[in-house]
Sequence to fold (527 residues):
Amino acid sequence: MDDQAGHPRRWWILSVLVLSLVVVGLDTLILNVALPTLQRDLGATGSDLQWTVDSYALAFGGLLLLAGGLGDRFGRRLMLTLGLVAFGATSVVAALSTSIDALIAARVGMGVGAALIMPATLSIIKIVFAPAEQGRAIAIWAGGASVGIPLGPVVGGVLLEHYSWASVFWINVPVVLVALVAGLLLIPESRDGSGARLDLPGAALSTAGLATLVYAIIEAPVHGWTSATTLGSIAASAVLLGCFWVWQQRTASPLLPPSLVRDRRVGGSVVVIAVLAFALYGVLFSLTQYLQFVLRYEPLEAGLRLLPIIAIVAAAPLGVVLVRRAGFHRTAALGIAAVAIAAGLVASLDVDTPGQALLAVAAIGVGLGFALPPASDAILAATPPDKAGVGSALTDAALQVGGSLGVAVLGSVLVDEYRDAVAPSLTALPEPAAAAVTDSVAAAQPVAQQLPTEAGESLLAAVAQAFVDGQQAAMTVAVGVAVLGIVIARTVLPRRVQPAPSDGATGGGTPRPAALSGAPGTTTTSA
Fold:
């Protein structure tokens, strides 16, 4: 393989990586449209339904650094293959589940598979593409990572119109099989050839710390941000991650080299990616409910209105050009600004102004296209080839933690404001019905159907307005977080991104382009 030209099959390889990413993104939201059916068919409680969604995120987010380290040590293609096998097999288990407990366990397995897949995809890009092409390849990677998310409700809506809830899991199987076979045929194996031992204590501490942090974020809206459960989980996560950081500075073979974390390219890019994910997941979480519960669209109709996010496909290549002309720091700031505009548009939505929702989703796509690829590229550029998996895992962890925070924080603001706004309209309802509507906007429709027509419509109108009030408050917070991200991008990120040393060093020295094969510390073999 020519170091300057990259792997001869690199673009075919990229198509396999993107396909793998799409199926992972698809399962982020595809299950949401099937929750009412699951509740009916499996007798699931509200808590059960929450864990069918959250168990996936918990396993996914908690295992990312470990998965990246395993890829560096034992082989990135191997981890991708194992991830696809785990994801496909547990999708079958989920589809065949006859109890909610079995389904939740299967979702944990899918999260494990996703954690193995995602870092491997980005680290393989670093190996098979020459530095000159990595920015373009990562732009396409970012498009695949983002497009799968809004496709979930669309695909789920189509499937549920014709088949049972199990179809949202069966759809994964043929996609996984194609990616699995193509990956084995096309993707070369690569690993850290230095013989360094896997940092098992670091892996254990990072997994426990990240999983505890994601758990705290997920459970905060349920128990309250100041509850003993939430504060205790956050404290435990801080202790675990603190111990992990101390250990990384003392061990001879750290899972996450301290010099990598201190690099302003990496630290600034992690914050940028987390801000983007915060806004992306938070806005999509809010908009999905707005379209279904305020405008009363069916799941498929709602999902189709999230498709303008594919603007990322056009924006990502343009972002690569902007980085060359305007600089990394300005391009990232511009991308976050587009996301801030999107949140502002959602904040301005009313009960009868859905057109702005399409503009908001398109603006998110543009913002992601401008900021996500260069930020991901910056992390990879700062990462030595022998640590490509861990560098990729940092990107993915920022996406997962930022996204979980976006849903938790913005969801909490929305719910609190909604409850305050809807309370005066519920005084005439029986206490159980009022409690149901107060707890969830989704409960308003069945309660309204049991009331006289005029009273039911009046209740739905009050609920819709209360939700819009809550959405405005949540999106105002999103705009504030985005503005903070713009400031960080402009002040912390460098203008240009230089590649990391190719000699396996973790810091220092004069940066030079990373070799694609044959570099000390990195072993690459053909398929």
User: Anything to note?
Assistant: The chain is about 75% helix and 0% strand. The CA atoms of residues 52 and 104 lie 5 Å apart.
